[in-house]
Amino acid sequence: MLNYIKAELYRAAHHMTVYLVSGILLALALAFATMWVGPFTFPNMAALLSVTMPVGLFMAAVMDVVVVSGIHRTGSLKNELSFGIPRSRIYLGKLTAAFLLSVMLCALVLGGFLGLSCLLTAPGDPEETRVVLAVLGYVVAASFPLWLGALSVTHMLFFALKSEVMAACLTAYLLLLGEPMTAIFTMINSETIAAPARAVREVMLTTPFWKYEGELTWQLMAQNWAIGLGWLVVSTAVGLWVFRRAEIK
């Protein structure tokens, strides 16, 4: 498994999308930090960073696409299976490689933004800085399992569907419109429909981000980890089940 993951990371390292996405995000971080050089201090910039956590869902999805793109179109799955590589190793190996890529990109973007903010803005009050960084650490830790859930769902869709366009559209729908569309059903004047819709909305990957505006508690942290790991376990189980029964041509 380790050698397979290394091979996937090596292949991803030669994928232009990784560098393109990293470059764009760092350029945006530089532009954003430069924009607020005058009026903002470092704690202000760190506080701004804390409200960008939903972006991590899409970063995770893109990094998974880097790893799994073309698996059906190029025939790479058929080649790997012909060499006797187990399907579980292929699925989980690519998922692990996408996870590692996502973690590296996350560290690069967060570290890059904070580093640029530290260099380009005034230091601010030390106590304020300590509090803001503690809040940032909390929301990153609470958002991490949700990002992981988005990555695993993307992985499942790209393995289960032969059409990459369809997989990408479903991923975008889930991350962009899934929660708002579910919220519409919660407003229907019928508990038969509204009650299940409320239950579904509570476990959507995008819903917990709205709760960061309130009190940041350990209960919220636990709920986020339960939701994120739930999506990870269920989507991975479904993805493996479908992939093991799929006919690869």
Low-confidence spans? none
Report helical residue fraction. over 70%
Distance between the termini: 24 Å
The coarse overall form would be globular
**Arithmetic mean pLDDT:** 86
SS-based structural class?
Answer: mainly alpha
- Number of H- or I-type helical stretches: 10
The radius of gyration computed from the alpha-carbon positions, rounded to a whole number of angstroms, is 20 Å
Strand content: under 5%
Summed up:
The chain is built from ten helices and no strands. The protein is mainly alpha-helical and 249 residues long. The chain has one domain.
Describe it for me?
- This protein has one domain.
- Helix content is 78%, strand content 0%.
- The protein contains ten helices and no strands.
- It has helices spanning 2-13, 16-35, 42-50, 55-68, 76-82, 87-120, 126-160, 164-186, 191-202, 218-245.
- The radius of gyration is 20 Å and the shape is globular.
- The chain starts with a helix and ends with a helix.
